[in-house]
Amino acid sequence: MLGIKEIQEIIPHRYPFLLIDKITNLEKGIKAVGYKNVTMNEYFFVGHFPQEPVMPGVLIVEALAQVGAVAILSLDDMKGKTAYFGGINNTKIRRKVIPGDTLKLEIEIIKRKGPVGVGKARATVDGEVAVTGELTFIVK
Fold first, then answer.
1. 0.90 exceeded by the pTM?
2. What is the tens place of the pLDDT at every residue in 35-70?
3. CB 29 within 8 A of CB 75
4. Can you give the residue ranges of every domain in the chain?
5. Contacts of 21 (CB under 8 A, 6+ apart)
6. Range 4-139 classified under CATH 3.30.2270.10
7. How many whole angstroms separate alpha carbon 13 and alpha carbon 20?
8. Annotated catalytic residue: which of 22, 48, 95, 122?
């Protein structure tokens, strides 16, 4: 398991944009499983939405991408680099994510050629699918 300190040694994201709390399963360069505990203290709930706090879907996609970045950047030849978005495809937001939810974030790298790759992503809450999609990354 990787805690927040180990995650920060692999990816450059920091508060308020580090959106994963731990990684429980890591197969370097292949797949990873991480978690985000969604609390009412998240900065985005101030305006999204004050009367009904909902985690923005794009931030769930970003959390998935960060888990994917941990999977790729944990490889010896990728250390110290940054994984950037190259594309977001076939993505569907299927469920609201609200304070108190724990997001399970899973990504499997399905294609990779040099610094470019694609990850199949899935976020769930209590086994219920919240977001699915394919995320393209470019490592520089």
1. yes
2. 999 999 999 999 999 999 999 999 999 999 999 999
3. yes
4. 4-139
5. 4, 34, 35, 36, 37
6. no
7. 10
8. 48
